Every structure is written in C-alpha cells, then in structure tokens.
Amino acid sequence: MHLEALRAYCLSLAAVTEDVKWDHDLCFSIGGKMFCVASMEPPFSFSFKVDAEDFQALSAMPGLSPAPYLARYHWVLANEGHTLSSQEIEHRVRESYELIKSKLPKKVLKEAGLL
C-alpha cells in the first residue's frame, strides 16, 4: 500500500481529519487524537496503534518495529519491506482508529457526530 491508498482509506473513516506535523508526516486523527501517521518523504513508512496483546508479535515481524517515541503507547512502525497485505493494513488502521475513538470523551464524540 502506498501513501495515497493509505490516505484514501483513512479519510474514508467517519470524522477523520488530516494535517501535516513535524514538516513531513501526514497525520490522521479522530477527535484531535492521532490514529495513523505516514511519512510523506521516501522511504514510505507509517505508524499505527495496536492493542497491548498484539504489540510484541507485530513488532517482531519483518519490516515492523516499535514506533519511535510512541512504542510505550503500543504504536508500531511499518517500514518498506513490511509483509502486511493491503487488507491487513486496513484492518490494523481501522483497529487503531477504533482504539483511539474508544478513549474519546462522549462530548468529543457527540461534536464529531459519532454519537
């Protein structure tokens, strides 16, 4: 999956916003909280949050590693050469979206039209 496909998928999810942070990372958020971050410069890489049970196993897969600065929150970095299929990437990004969404206050969910 390349940046435009990842971007299209992230933006297809309800109430998602995007912005550029740190000059070269495209960040996708729900309720102001990031759920996926992608590099806009080569080599293409992206990060997403996973649940605690999956973190160790995913981090040990080829092309995947704990995300710098975010690993303590169970974020995984996918580099070039990762072995995730497009369907698996969509599943993991959706899971990240749902994990972040589940922690948002009801007021934020209501303002975003998600309640």
Automatic annotation (TrEMBL):
Question: Which InterPro entries does the record associate with it?
Answer: YjbR (IPR007351), YjbR-like_sf (IPR038056), YjbR/MT2646/Rv2570-like (IPR058532)
What Pfam families does the record tag this protein with? YjbR
What domain of life?
Bacteria
The record, for PANTHER family, names: CYTOPLASMIC PROTEIN, CYTOPLASMIC PROTEIN-RELATED
Q: By what name is this protein known?
A: MmcQ/YjbR family DNA-binding protein
- What species is this protein from? Nibribacter ruber
